[in-house]
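MODEL INPUT / OUTPUT PAIR
PAIR INDEX: 1
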Amino acid sequence: MTDRTGIFSNPADPARITYEGDGTSRDFPFGFAVFDAADIVVRVGDEDVSSGFHIALKTPDAGPGGVVRFESAPASGVEIGIRRRLHLRRLSRYHSGSSLRADALNHDFDYMLAALGDLGAGMAGVLTLPDGEAGKSLIWDESGNRLINGADGAVIAGAQQQGHLATAAALRAETAQDRAENALHGFMQQGAGPVLALDCRAQNTVAYEDERRMKMIAAPGYRVLDRRETGAFVMLSNGGRADLPACAAAGNGVWYRISNGDGTQVDIRAQGSDILRPADGSAEQALVTLPLRGDAVDVVCDGMRWHIQPVRSGGPVVKLRRVAVQNIPADGDFIIEWDSVPTDTHHLYDAAIDGINHVPPGHYHLDIGVCFELTADAVQGMVYVERLGAGGWNLHLQGIDTLPAGPGARKIVRCGGMIRAGIGVDNAFRVRVVHGSDDSRVIPASDLQTWFHLARIGA
């Protein structure tokens, strides 16, 4: 049992006490004066109760108060309130000519004073009105405890009028802003036109409109696109996601241009069982990522599915490292095994082929450096880039350099240039190293000097 008086009771009203049940206590004492057990009101939780307990009052010689004893202990955490409620009534009648006993008179006075005290405590929470002033309104004071005289009717009417004027001015400003934006959009459209991009070698044709003709939508977070927003340029940022509407016959021709605006990976997601079909012939999927700043795609609904066409894709694609020692056997000819992947923005690295595969179609800049440890004999070192095509692996780029004599020294052989990944084929690359020495050569342990960098420069 916990005495919570001082937390829940009114300090101006001593004739009440509050406890918190603990599930075992049945007796709850009180120390204020009462004149009859009927003067006690017991509350359990939010309701007054009249049964399930007994009240035992102290004898007059033992002082005021008593005990409320429950038949069953109240549950733990339940609030038990005990308070006095006295009604103004006469306890004694005095007849003319009878003797006036002092103890009876004192008892009556004690009862009247206690009843008036209860009444005063109850009146403390009664709302009182201030002295009235003609034409003034009544308002709560700053503390919210009482009413005071407020503004008069003329001031209130003036404030209402000013509010109407402010609302009208805001509406006019909003209308003017819309007109200005429409005029600017129309002015920009005058200088905008369609764009046709041809890639004769890849047999790709991309036709699209200038973004200045499109409605711009900034989507820094999660955005659900609506069919009525067709033709909009949607710029995602902060790792945001764009949800496409359900693709149905009624949405045939709905399209959006969606771009990565800040460089954090953003996603495009189809609804329900819908899928996104890449125009490059790669696997269909329900979620497409734009990992790099500036990446942009067009998504088009043909009434049955969504098609996705890259418009621009740039930046690094993959960076591989060889950081541990790898031996090149005598007359070595082997594939470099990459054991560190600092960057793989398109999830292209495949350890099974010791290279990358399923590279999106487009043009890339390739930069490779292989660090050899030198020995006492000079020999040629060669680095080949092989591309996987319809007929299997074949030589694509090569770098050749002399590995001079110099025990304890190192030499880096580099290979780089432009490469193209096709649609469905010619889209996997690996690195082969060859030397003509009779002894094993070594790629030393280094986190910088043997690398494979592939950067996309255009879709």
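PAIR INDEX: 2
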Amino acid sequence: MILSVYQLGGEQSEVVIDGNNLMFRDPYTQTITTIEGLKLNKGGVIKEHPDLEYDSEWRKKAIERLKEHLKKMESELIKLDYVKKELTKFGWKPLYFQKVGFRPQKFKN
């Protein structure tokens, strides 16, 4: 299990990678959201998956594709790198990550 922390302006968010599970945690309210609770922008989904443009179940199918993509990745560190890359595209600043049983480490740029 790996916990990583990201910041966007004054807001912080934590991402927990546990095997094939991806969870998002708000450190202020202590609420945990699974990958199904992601807020998706339809325009962004269509940009990645043009075939979902006229599909009424675009959100569900996009989340399933993301889950399958994550399952193909071999390790939690590779998944961490993928999440970091995706979040930095949208302005989130990676602060640090922590593997279970180890001290927190700053992300290397």
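PAIR 2 NOTE: Residues 2-106 form one domain.
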